[in-house]
């Protein structure tokens, strides 16, 4: 049995080795959300493209307000956003100007509407206005030729806005890996079916597809396969053919009908580990086959989700070009006792609430790895280290939010 941290290290190393440099695609900017830029983005324009007003007010010459007792300027006309004013501003003149409008030639400052008085065409100013006051200067944000977004950047809503303001409609992003899923178990029936004797509905296929979607990867499912060695091997090989990562659900343990590990040996996959000191999720295997990653995940529904989040998701992220260095864990004060045994790193799904700046963890129900209900009642998880058993209310432990 391998330590959970060691398992993560191995997966991280193997996924980094899979070179994705040449695997990119051109997508519409809105489809690039949560993907990673595969090119440097150069600016073909200055942003903003002209000096513009940051306020609704009056465009003036700052000099006209300096060392003067009474400042009275003549208001010429109104410049609104989108106009281009041809006539330059002359001494002791002002233009009324709206936010975002282009500054007229000769003007070097804007005074806010709220700070002046206007009677007929006369503008009264009672203060000295500094040069560049309330002006957003040409190229202040980005200069023509700049690289405001570098290859490797994760695209979030502000990046999409910036791309749009630079005139990019399509950009190159790294291709998301395709994850092949193979669901095994003689007890499984389709979710449309009524429950029959000895059978349960195939929920894992759906949670897996949702987890993959949540990780912004593509899915290829071979559906349910019987606990039959030949059929299972055939479907695993098909999944390898069609995907970058293959996941099996179920059949990964030591039961008489758990064939996944035998098949890995038979096809001579490079098996890295077959058992992890994590709860839930001990019967998890990881292997590399034909430069593709393979995860055998346990069939127990919450173990499957936990191992996906801890082991598969980081691999998908790194194959998508996302390298996360910062930890998302924080300290949580326990509101209840939690029973646990030493020997494995334990993930206990809880409700985390913040009160007066402190995070507290509340019990959310039975943690049986066959149940999903407690996970549905949870927004977070606390992680009890391997060498610690039960923990008590009031103790402080590391936790994190889930599915964020
Ligand atoms: P296994 O990993 O095959 O030993 O299965 C462990 C437990 O998970 C058993 O109780 C299975 O019935 C259950 N299980 C396996 N596959 C699925 C599935 N696709 N959906 C829901 N439960 C499953
Ligand atoms: Mg089974």
Automatic annotation (TrEMBL):
Report the SMART domains cross-referenced here: MoCF_biosynth
UniProt keyword list: Magnesium, Metal-binding, Molybdenum, Molybdenum cofactor biosynthesis, Transferase
EC code(s) of this entry:
2.10.1.1
Q: Which Pfam families match?
A: MoCF_biosynth, MoeA_C, MoeA_N
Molecular-function annotations in GO? metal ion binding; molybdopterin molybdotransferase activity
The protein's enzyme class: transferase
State the GO CC annotations. cytosol
Named in its record, the pathway it takes part in is: Cofactor biosynthesis; molybdopterin biosynthesis
One of the GO biological process terms = Mo-molybdopterin cofactor biosynthetic process
Highest taxon of the lineage? Bacteria
Q: Where is the MoaB/Mog domain?
A: 180-318
Essential cofactor(s): Mg(2+)
| Catalytic activity reported | adenylyl-molybdopterin + molybdate = Mo-molybdopterin + AMP + H(+)
PROSITE patterns, from UniProt? MOCF_BIOSYNTHESIS_2
Family named by the database record:
Belongs to the MoeA family.
> What does this gene product do?
May be involved in the biosynthesis of molybdopterin.
Protein name in UniProt = Molybdopterin molybdenumtransferase
Q: Tell me the organism.
A: Clostridium estertheticum subsp. estertheticum
């Amino acid at each position: 049995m391998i330590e959970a941290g060691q398992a993560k290290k191995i997966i991280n190393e193997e996924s980094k080795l899979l070179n994705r440099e040449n695997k990119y695609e051109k997508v519409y900017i809105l489809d690039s959300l949560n993907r990673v830029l595969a090119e440097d983005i150069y600016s073909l324009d200055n942003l903003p493209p002209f000096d513009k007003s940051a306020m609704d007010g009056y465009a003036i010459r700052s000099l006209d307000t300096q060392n003067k007792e009474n400042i009275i300027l003549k208001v010429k006309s109104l410049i609104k956003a989108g106009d281009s004013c041809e006539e330059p501003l002359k001494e002791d003149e002002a233009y009324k100007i709206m936010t975002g409008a282009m500054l007229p030639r000769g003007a070097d400052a804007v005074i806010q509407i709220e700070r002046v008085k206007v009677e007929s065409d006369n503008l009264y100013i009672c203060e000295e206005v500094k040069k560049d006051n309330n002006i957003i200067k040409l190229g202040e944000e980005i200069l023509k030729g700049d690289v405001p977004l570098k290859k490797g950047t994760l695209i979030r809503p502000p990046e999409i806005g910036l791309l749009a303001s630079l005139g990019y409609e399509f950009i190159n992003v790294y291709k998301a890996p395709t994850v092949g899923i193979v669901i095994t178990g003689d007890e499984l029936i389709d979710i449309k079916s009524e429950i029959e004797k000895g059978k349960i509905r195939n929920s894992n296929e759906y949670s897996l597809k949702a987890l993959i979607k949540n990780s912004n990867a593509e899915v290829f499912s071979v559906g349910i396969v019987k606990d039959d060695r030949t059929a299972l091997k055939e479907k695993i090989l098909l999944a390898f053919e069609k995907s970058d990562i293959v996941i099996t659900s179920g059949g990964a343990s030591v039961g008489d009908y758990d064939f996944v590990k035998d098949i890995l040996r038979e096809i001579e996959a490079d098996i890295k580990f077959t058992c992890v000191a994590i709860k839930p999720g001990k019967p998890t295997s990881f292997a590399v086959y034909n430069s593709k990653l393979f995860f055998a995940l346990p069939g127990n529904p919450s173990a499957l989700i936990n191992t996906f989040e801890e082991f598969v998701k980081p691999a998908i992220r790194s194959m998508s070009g996302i390298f996360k260095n910062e930890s998302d864990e924080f300290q949580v004060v326990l509101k209840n006792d939690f029973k646990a045994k030493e020997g494995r790193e334990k993930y206990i799904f809880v409700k985390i609430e913040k009160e007066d700046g402190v995070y507290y963890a509340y019990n959310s129900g039975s943690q049986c790895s066959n149940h999903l209900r407690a996970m549905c009642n949870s927004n977070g998880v606390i992680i009890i280290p391997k060498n610690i058993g039960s923990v008590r209310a009031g103790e402080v432990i590391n936790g994190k939010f889930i599915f964020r």
